[in-house]
C-alpha cells in the first residue's frame, strides 16, 4: 500500500505521539510506501527522504512557551494538504491528532475519497496546565477540547486509541464512532534486560548507586516535583540514592532549584537530551522507574521501562493502572502524594529480591505489547477501510 501519515508532532519532537508516529512509519516501510506530512522546522516547506520515509514538511511557526514544538498556521492548509495528496495518491491516510495539520489532511482526504484512520493521543489535561484558567472555566475548556476532537475524528472511517481506557475516554467525548484500542507497541528486542550501562554512565555522569529513574519531558504536567520532594525522605533510609531525570523541558531549572532548597541537589542528575541510541542504557541504569503523570493515555516510556525489566511506580490515574499492577510489577500511589511515593520507593529499593521479581513481571507484561502485533493490527485496518471505500475523486 501507499500510506500517508499525518502528524502535528513528529521527530525531533519529544513526546509519545511523535515517537509512536515515527516508529509506525519505520515499521511500515519494509512492506509499504510510506509518506509523512508534518510541520517543518522552519517557515518554509520542503520534502525530504529519510530512513525510507518521504517526509512532506509544511511551513510552521514556533509554539509560545513550548520550546521546540511548532504548529502549521491553518490559513491555506487544506489546499496545501490537497496538493500533497494529489501528488502522492495514497491508498489510506492515517492521522495522529486533530490539530490544524491533521485536520487539514482529513478534510483533503474526504474530498478525494481517500479512507481515513485516526489515532487519538490527546488529553486536554496536557494543555490546560499552560492556560491561565482555573475551576469551572478550566472544566469548560476541557469539555470544549474534547468536543472539538470528537468533531474532527467523526470524519474518520476508523478511530483508535492506545488503551481501553483511552478508547472509552475518546468515546465519552461524544464521538459516535466506536473507538478500537490498539497498543502503541514496544520494540522488545531493543528494550530488554541486561543492557550494558558503562558507556552511558560515563557519557552522562550517572553514578553506580541505587537509582530512581524517569525518562520523558520535564514539563509541568508530568508532576516531577513529586520525585524531588520524595527524595529527602528516601535518603533518610537509603543515603546513597540518586534521582536520574532523562530528558529536556521547561521545568528543569525549577526542579534543580527545588532540589537545592530541599538539600538534595547532590542526589539529582539531569542528563538533558539523550540520543535515541542511548535510551536502552538509560533505563538499564535505573533500579526503579517512576511515572507521576496524571494525563497518560498509555505511556510509552513506562512500557519501555517495563520491557527493560524494571519495577515501576506510577500515579494511580488515567491509563497507568493498565500497565502497573499494584504489588505485582510495581506500586501505584495516590496522585500528588510525595509521602506515599517515598514509602513505595523505600520498599522497592530496600528489597532487591522482590524488586527483581517485580522487574521480571514487568517484562512479561510488556511482552503483550509487541510492536509487530500493533503494526499487524493497523495493516488489517488499512486493508479493511480500503476494501470498503468509495472510488476516489482524483483532482485533475
Walk me through this protein's architecture:
The structure is a single chain. With 396 residues, this protein is of the alpha/beta class. It has two domains: 203 residues, Rossmann fold, CATH 3.40.50; 171 residues, Glycogen Phosphorylase B (Rossmann fold), CATH 3.40.50.2000. The chain is 39% helix and 17% strand. The chain contains 14 helices and 16 strands. Strand 9, helix 6 and strand 10 form a beta-alpha-beta unit. The C terminus is likely disordered.
Offer a quick outline of the entry.
This protein is α/β, with parallel strands linked by helices. It is built from 14 helices and 16 strands.
Question: What letter string, H or E per element, gives the SSE order?
Answer: EHEEEEEHEHEHHEHEHEHEHEHEHEEHHH
In the CATH hierarchy, the third-tier topology of the largest domain is known as Rossmann fold
Distance between the termini: 22 Å
Which structural class matches the secondary elements?
Answer: alpha/beta
Mean pLDDT: 93
Number of separate domains: 2
* % residues in beta strands: 15-25%
The backbone outline, from C-alpha atoms, is globular
Amino acid at each position: 500500500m501507499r500510506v500517508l501519515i499525518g502528524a502535528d508532532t513528529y521527530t525531533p519532537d519529544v513526546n509519545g505521539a511523535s515517537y509512536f508516529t515515527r516508529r509506525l512509519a519505520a515499521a511500515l516501510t519494509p512492506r509499504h510506501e510510506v509518506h509523512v506530512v508534518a510541520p517543518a522546522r522552519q517557515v518554509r516547506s520542503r520534502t525530504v527522504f529519510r530512513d525510507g520515509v518521504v517526509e512532506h514538511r509544511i511551513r510552521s511557526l514556533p509554539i509560545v512557551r513550548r520550546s521546540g514544538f511548532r504548529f502549521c498556521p491553518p490559513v491555506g492548509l487544506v489546499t496545501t494538504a490537497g496538493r500533497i495528496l494529489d501528488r502522492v495518491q495514497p491508498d489510506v491516510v492515517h492521522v495522529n491528532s486533530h490539530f490544524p495539520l491533521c485536520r487539514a489532511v482529513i478534510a483533503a482526504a474526504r474530498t478525494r475519497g481517500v479512507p481515513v484512520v485516526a489515532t487519538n493521543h490527546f488529553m486536554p489535561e496536557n494543555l490546560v496546565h499552560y492556560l491561565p484558567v482555573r475551576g469551572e472555566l478550566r472544566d469548560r475548556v476541557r469539555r470544549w477540547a474534547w468536543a472539538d476532537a470528537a468533531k474532527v475524528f467523526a470524519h474518520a472511517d476508523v478511530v483508535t486509541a492506545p488503551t481501553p481506557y483511552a478508547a472509552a475516554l475518546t468515546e465519552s467525548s461524544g464521538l459516535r464512532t466506536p473507538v478500537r484500542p490498539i497498543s502503541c507497541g514496544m520494540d522488545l528486542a531493543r528494550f530488554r534486560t541486561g543492557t550494558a550501562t558503562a558507556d552511558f554512565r560515563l557519557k552522562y555522569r550517572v553514578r553506580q548507586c541505587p537509582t530512581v529513574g524517569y525518562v520523558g519531558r520535564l514539563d509541568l504536567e508530568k508532576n516531577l516535583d513529586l520525585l524531588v520532594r520524595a527524595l529527602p525522605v528516601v535518603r533518610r533510609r537509603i543515603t546513597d540514592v540518586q534521582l536520574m531525570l532523562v530528558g529536556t523541558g521547561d521545568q528543569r531549572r525549577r526542579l534543580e532549584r527545588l532540589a537545592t532548597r530541599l538539600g538534595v541537589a547532590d542526589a539529582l542528575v539531569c542528563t538533558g537530551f539523550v540520543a535515541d541510541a542511548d535510551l536502552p542504557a538509560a533505563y538499564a541504569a535505573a533500579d526503579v522507574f517512576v511515572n507521576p503523570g496524571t494525563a497518560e493515555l498509555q505511556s510509552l516510556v513506562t512500557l519501555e521501562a517495563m520491557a527493560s525489566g524494571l519495577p515501576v511506580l506510577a500515579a494511580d490515574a488515567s491509563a497507568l493502572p493498565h500497565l502497573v499492577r499494584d504489588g505485582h510489577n510495581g506500586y501505584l500511589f495516590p496522585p500528588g502524594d510525595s509521602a506515599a511515593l517515598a514509602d513505595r520507593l523505600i520498599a522497592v529499593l530496600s528489597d532487591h529480591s522482590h524488586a527483581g521479581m517485580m522487574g521480571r513481571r514487568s517484562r512479561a507484561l510488556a511482552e503483550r505489547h509487541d510492536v509487530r502485533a500493533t503494526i499487524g493490527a493497523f495493516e488489517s485496518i488499512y486493508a479493511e477501510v480500503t476494501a470498503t471505500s468509495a472510488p476516489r475523486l482524483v483532482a485533475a
